Amino acid sequence: MSAVPFSTNRAAGELLIDAEADSMPAPHPTPAPSLARRILLGASVVLIAFNLRPVFASLSVMLPEIMAATGLSATAASLLTTLPIVCLGVFAPLAPGLGRRFGTERTLLGCMVLILVGTALRGTGNIPLLFVASAVAGSGIAVSNVLLSGLVKRDFAGQAALMMGLYTMAVCGGAASAAGLTVPLEHALGGGWTSALAMWALPALLVTLIWTPQALPLKPVASESGFTVRGLWRDRLAWQVTFFMGLQSALAYIVMGWLAPILRERGLGGETAGYAVSLAVMTQVVTCLVIPAVAVKLRNQRGLAVGLALLTLAAMLAMLFAPLSGVWFWAVLLGIAQGGTFALALTFMVLRSPDSHVAAHLSGMAQGVGYMVAACGPLLAGLLHGWTGSFRASSWLFIGLGIALVIAGLGAGRTMHVGAVTVPRR
After folding, report:
1. Which of 62, 64, 247, 318 keeps 20 to 30 A from 275, CA to CA?
2. Where are the beta strands (DSSP E) in 104-201?
3. Residue 112 and residue 170 in one domain
4. Structural domain count of the chain
């Protein structure tokens, strides 16, 4: 899943991760928008969030059909599932600069166009275009992940918790819908995998049409930031938080990219496998909302981090080896565990930061580096399947990533701040 900002109520106010906090000035006083405009803006944010994951989930459930119809090798399929995740790491650091230059709203409009075009191009059935389309959509998703947090903080500061809850639910809902409905869409449309994948351009088209009249009239806000952060990239705790984010994302994108093929290889039908993935993703909503509130009340989060990491590992191994009669139970357990590690990774970015400027830089570091780490997960899972002819060999990958996640959690869960400091620019 993408980094979603986390908010927690404090006596002194609300602290919220914002990847643009160091580059966005305090806004000049402006007339309060009307209630109707705020409702439209909030609905638009939720609809944009819905479109940030179907590209990943819809492809995974159709991989067996794509490979059979095109002769795509297991190695190429691994690269195809990994490419959008690589884009998340490559393009996320560019988001604040793009937002400053073109304005957050206009940049998000450009991102929606990229997601729309990339998703639609997957319907051509051309394999080289399928790779290009995945990269195009992935770049739009990467920048949107970052900019939406700043938009929520700026325009919904008083309702940040509500908006973040809706944001998280929309992201999970988009992924779950794509996982559960793509195969039924293929059967209903009768146009094969190309039509089923291209259909997910329709939600992106709808949001683009709704967002265009809101975004085009708005001009960019010039940066007036007078602060920078030093020492973050040399800090051990910052790297532990980053690796916790990256490793839990690696396991999450293995589930999103390969769980349906794993279950289909074990004998489940395409629709049933898609529904199992959909259930696992939707269950994440519950723990995404609960875990942050639990984490901030604990003296430290080491035990919580280790417990969730081990639960994730156990559920993933069960998907590989446990009787299929229990697949629904394991799907729910997997959703609880992965929703928890995702939420905890976001919470660490707040709890381990002494101020909002450091939190912003730590968020950017965790997204940029973390998603590059995450990309290795589905890539290696696919390569292992290609080399061995079975997904069973992936169990060693799951175990390795799980152990590494436990180690990162033991470090990131300590009650202390990163050693980075905020200083005035010269």
Report:
1. 247
2. none
3. yes
4. 2
Integer Cα distance of 299 and 26 in angstroms? 33
303 and 341 inside one domain: yes
Beta partners for residue 7, in sequence order: 16
Backbone angles phi, psi at 16, to 5 degrees: -135, 125
Query: What one-character-per-residue DSSP string does 253-320 give?
Result: HHHHHHHHHHHHHTT--HHHHHHHHHHHHHHHHHHHHHHHHHHTTSS-SHHHHHHHHHHHHHHHHHHH
177, 52 in Cβ contact below 8 A? no
| Residue 233, number of CB atoms within 10 A of its CB | 13
What would the pLDDT profile of 193-206 be if each residue is shown by its tens digit? Answer: 899 999 999 999 99
Pairing relationship of beta strands 421-424 and 7-10 according to DSSP bridges: unpaired
Structure tokens at 11: 């006596």
pLDDT digits (tens, 9 = 90+) for 297-327: 898 999 999 999 999 999 999 999 999 999 9
pTM check: above 0.85: no
Answer yes or no: do 176 and 255 share one domain: no
Per the domain annotation, does 32 fall within a domain?
Answer: no
Rounded to whole angstroms, the Cα distance separating 361 from 8 reads 18
Does 15 fall in a domain?
A: no
